[in-house]
Description:
about 120 residues; mainly beta; 5-stranded mixed β-sheet; 3-stranded mixed β-sheet; 1 helix
Amino acid sequence: ETPVESTVSPQELATEESVEIQPAEEQLETIVSIPVGAAIPGCEKTDECFMPSSIIAVQGSTITWTNDDTAAHTVTSGKDVVADGKFDSGLLVVGGTFSFKFESNGEYPYYCAVHPWMTGKVTVE
Length: 125
């Protein structure tokens, strides 16, 4: 009797490869929401002006901020309302997004130039 060989179709191999790659890509992008109400002072008391307000990311990660509020905002790198020039979204309209890829380790504080009580931080390790 002839032994039966099990074969794997090329489609099955391709599926297995893309499944292995997918999780690594997902870890490299983080979404930060600018929630409804962030334009009104008070969100800084509960640290909810950016959600999440503090992120620990790996080198090479991309962070995307989405403006889910009813007012325009900025995502401006710097501290104490002093821009440091590392990144700046410009004015983000309602529903707008801004992405930045973090290539170097370090701490990246940021704020909204329109509403300076809104602050957040990305730590790249």
